[in-house]
Amino acid sequence: MPVDNEIKGRLALVTGASGGIGAACARDLFAAGASLALTYSTNKTALDALLAELQPLAPDRKLSAHQCDVANDADLTRLFAEIQHQHGQHPDILVVNAGYGKRTSNILDITIAEWDYTIAVNLRASFLLTQLAVPHMLAQQWGRVVYISSIAATGTSINGCHYSASKAGVQGLSKNLANKMGKDGVTFNDVAPAMITGTGMIPTEEHLKGTPGDVSNIPVGRAGSTQECANVVTMLCRTGYITGQSILLSGGLK
Length: 254
Ligand SMILES: NC(=O)c1ccc[n+]([C@@H]2O[C@H](COP(=O)([O-])OP(=O)(O)OC[C@H]3O[C@@H](n4cnc5c(N)ncnc54)[C@H](OP(=O)(O)O)[C@@H]3O)[C@@H](O)[C@H]2O)c1
What we know:
By secondary structure, the chain is α/β, with parallel strands linked by helices. The protein has a single domain, classed as 3-Layer(aba) Sandwich (Rossmann fold), CATH 3.40.50.720. It has helices at residues 20-31, 44-54, 73-87, 112-140, 161-181, 226-238; strands spanning 11-14, 35-40, 63-67, 93-96, 143-148, 186-193, 246-249. The protein has a seven-stranded parallel β-sheet, sandwiched between helices. Helix 3 (73-87) packs parallel to helix 4 and helix 4 (112-140) packs parallel to helix 5. The termini are far apart. The chain binds NADP nicotinamide-adenine-dinucleotide phosphate. NADP nicotinamide-adenine-dinucleotide phosphate binds next to helix 1. Residues 16, 18-22, 40-43, 68-71, 97-101, 121, 148, 150, 193-196, 199-202 line the site of NADP nicotinamide-adenine-dinucleotide phosphate.
């Protein structure tokens, strides 16, 4: 079988492109020649600004914006119907990035509602998005799925155990599917970032002061950038020989 790692001309769906890491992934995949379907939940202004920035760079390339609360099953089904209608196909590349995490670190302070919502946004939606995306990928024997998990899945976290559990679940989902669909040309990997500034979660290094993610605890001595996350996501999309991996992007933090 010939090796096909071409991104140019593919359609990438990036959820949460109104946020820091999602926007950086969208920019990077667009620069690599992909068409984009991008989602926001509440921040339409940010996504509109991203579209206004990108579209003039390649006026003929198809870009679309979709409102989608990933905790809402009907929104997910509608998202895929809108993509089919606007692009004439389902995505070839799926970047499951939209995520939610509150800094409630003590288990005794985590309500059941907070547990359920965190699992719904981070884990349940990852399953449902993947279920919606894989039929097209299997039919064409080519697909790339990249989940944005977190160092919290296995290590240091400024959030609580509910967030860690949701992200560890995503890693399990990814590794299971990687084994099952490797021979079908569909790869599954996750990028596990830590302390990425320029995001709603961590606007600046100031927001890490006094937490386990304080830059004084990070071996490289600084926080990570959204572009560094995007670099890894694009690399995984371009490298079909990597599947079932969690790439820790943490400046050496464990
Ligand atoms: N920043 C870090 O250091 C770090 C570390 C580890 C993992 N992560 C993960 O990276 C991913 C991106 O986060 P970020 O750091 O870029 O933070 P961010 O700037 O706050 O972006 C979060 C994105 O998720 C979207 N979102 C939140 N709840 C949603 C929902 N119910 N339905 C649909 N979309 C929803 C937001 O949409 P709206 O703004 O439009 O509502 C936004 O686009 C998340 O999965 C997060 O867990 C981040």
